[in-house]
């Protein structure tokens, strides 16, 4: 009994200095009684032991993996025999908790282990009490009640099923005083939001801005890059060597008017471009005229002419190579950009 009290004192002292780093472990000294199967021919006896459990991470089906040791000192034989048996039981179990509330829970366990029994003396019929070594399975039920955040009382009953010679069922029931190393509910560290800036003031946070340093007043897309509605000349169906947009393709320009319809403070800048085919001076003029043609359609669609400016760049700002047919087609375009 003195050893049990000493163990309780030691684990209590340990819990007082426990910290968050060693949370997830439990230590439980136990004391209890036994009721042996009739095949053992042994009287009921007290036992003592200890458990150490590793708590699994949240989300696991089982809550603990527990290693245990139990000691039965001198379980006397029944009748008038002069023998007894000492037992050492080593076992490993998986435990599943069923919470009733924060402080009270039931649990179930399943596991197995090894029983090392040392016989002494003889039975009533004079036969020797032999040693008994056997593997065993165990299943059990229990309850825990947390007296404080770290300390809990534990009641348990389990069936120890030994396999040597014949299968025997042996009841072990116990009271334990458990210690959680660290708080069951770790302190919540407040998350301090780190303010994210918008250095260029375009409305897109710096951590999402793919085009930092956008000039003030530039309308940008969701990535922080300049918003551009690109109209390729082929889709606009200008007539041959013409700057007049055919009626059947005017609906393409509507994308621009629809974009600014609910943004009365937006101004539109139309930029015309060509490929490098032909004379550069001619291409410059052609790009200017085609930008102006898009402006005319926008005015027809109800956009205020005073909010539209045009600029031609000729062949000076290609977006693709001019050495292929496909690249030249991409360079023949009118870009709509926006300011606010």
Automatic annotation (TrEMBL):
InterPro entries: Bact_OuterMem_StrucFunc, Beta-barrel_OMP, OMP/PagP_B-barrel, OMP_bac, OmpA-like, OmpA-like_sf, TSP_type-3_rpt. Keywords: Cell outer membrane, Ion transport, Membrane, Porin, Signal, Transmembrane, Transmembrane beta strand, Transport. GO terms for cellular component: cell outer membrane; pore complex. Its main location: membrane. Residues 325-340 have a biased composition (Basic and acidic residues). Residues 1-18 form the signal peptide. It is a multi-pass membrane protein. One of its GO terms (molecular function) is porin activity. Residues 314-340 are annotated as: Disordered. Pfam families: OMP_b-brl, OmpA. Residues 225-340 form the OmpA-like domain. It is found in: Cell outer membrane. Coiled coil: none annotated. Residues 314-324 have a biased composition (Polar residues). GO terms for biological process: monoatomic ion transport. PANTHER family: LIPOPROTEIN YIAD-RELATED, STATOR ELEMENT OF FLAGELLAR MOTOR COMPLEX. This is OmpA family protein.
């Amino acid at each position: 009994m003195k050893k049990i009290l000493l163990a309780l004192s030691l684990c209590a002292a340990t819990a007082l200095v426990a910290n968050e780093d060693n949370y997830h472990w439990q230590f439980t000294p136990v004391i209890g009684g036994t009721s042996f199967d009739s095949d053992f021919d042994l009287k009921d006896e007290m036992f003592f032991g200890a458990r150490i459990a590793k708590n699994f991470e949240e989300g696991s089906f089982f809550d603990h993996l527990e290693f245990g040791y139990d000691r039965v000192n001198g379980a006397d034989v029944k009748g008038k025999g002069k023998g007894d048996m000492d037992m050492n039981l080593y076992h490993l179990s998986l435990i599943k908790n069923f919470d009733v509330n924060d402080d009270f829970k039931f649990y179930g366990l399943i596991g197995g282990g090894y029983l090392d029994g040392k016989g002494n003396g003889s039975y009533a019929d004079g036969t020797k009490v032999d040693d008994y070594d056997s593997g065993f399975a165990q299943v059990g039920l229990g309850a825990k009640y947390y007296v404080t955040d770290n300390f809990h009382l534990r009641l348990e009953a389990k069936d120890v099923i030994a396999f040597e010679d014949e299968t025997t069922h042996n009841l072990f029931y116990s009271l334990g005083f458990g210690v959680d190393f660290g708080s069951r509910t770790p302190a919540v560290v407040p998350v301090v939001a780190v303010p994210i800036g918008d250095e260029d003031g375009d409305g897109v946070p710096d951590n999402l801005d793919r085009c930092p340093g956008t000039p003030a007043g530039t309308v940008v897309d969701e990535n922080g890059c300049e918003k551009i509605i690109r109209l390729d000349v082929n889709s606009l169906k200008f007539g041959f060597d013409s700057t007049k947009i055919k009626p059947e393709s005017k609906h393409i320009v509507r994308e621009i008017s629809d974009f600014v319809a609910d943004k009365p403070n937006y101004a539109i800048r139309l930029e015309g471009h060509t490929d490098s085919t032909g004379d550069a001076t001619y291409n410059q003029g052609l790009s200017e005229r085609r930008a102006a043609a898009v402006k005319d359609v926008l005015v027809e669609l109800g956009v205020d002419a005073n909010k539209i400016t045009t600029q031609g760049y000729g062949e000076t700002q290609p977006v693709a190579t001019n050495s292929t047919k496909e690249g030249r087609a991409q360079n023949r375009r009118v870009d709509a950009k926006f300011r606010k």
